[in-house]
Fold:
Amino acid sequence: MDSPSPPPPPEDSPPPPPLPSTSSGSPTDFLKAVVGKRVVVRLVSGVDYRGLLSCLDGYMNIALEQTEEHVNGRITNRYGDAFIRGNNGS
Amino acid sequence: MADVPSQGVQEPFDLIRLSLSERVFVKLRGDRQLTGVLHAYDGHMNLIMSDVEETIMIVEPVEGAPEGEGIVRAVKRNLDMLFVRGDGVILVSPPSRT
Amino acid sequence: MTSQILPLELIDRCIGSRIWVVMKSEREFTGTLLGFDDFVNMVLEDVTEYETTPEGDRKSTKLAQTLLNGNNICMLIPGSAGPESA
Structure:
């Protein structure tokens, strides 16, 4: 699974401003900073999950709220809550 | 952590813990999905579910259609009790808590 | 809420019984469960292997004692006679 990323900007808009300088920019800081925000979680398969990031853990297991599943740009499912399994090194 | 959106969910597994004995939706690798009652889980996301309906999506290639497109056929089967190996789990969605 | 049953405890209770194993590929096995480990590698006996070909045909093969690599296992259905019963 890839890292969650903030929602993409609307088409044709300028690139997003850099993250606030309070964050040192490490992946951990980034993830802490986006908890509670709307994110896109893209799986290796290309499926996107868009929703409000409730929380995540060290395996990158992720809990989302108000989740939409997008495949090829189309919404294919909606979930109130969703647990997405991370790379749990099994 | 002041802006954590929902109460009781501090880490992702809390979402699963709160879904024990509830009917959940599980999406698995290989275009399979399950709905059933969640009885047990562990840190690998191994699951025990009962009263399960499994849906397998089978894409049948169609002459002339591009690769990966074709008729999608859903095959369903019902299973009383089921163990799911955690590494096949993509997503678990509990019943709506609203 | 802290005393929870774990999935592998339930599989442990199936030792000695018939079990249906669905692999991640189009391959399934039924057999008597002799044992398993933390990786869900499992040993079965009196095994029937079911293979579904892309054409949708089902081919079955009888096997004696068999070790299945847990990496390839998707689901286990305890006490089941296998794909013909579902």
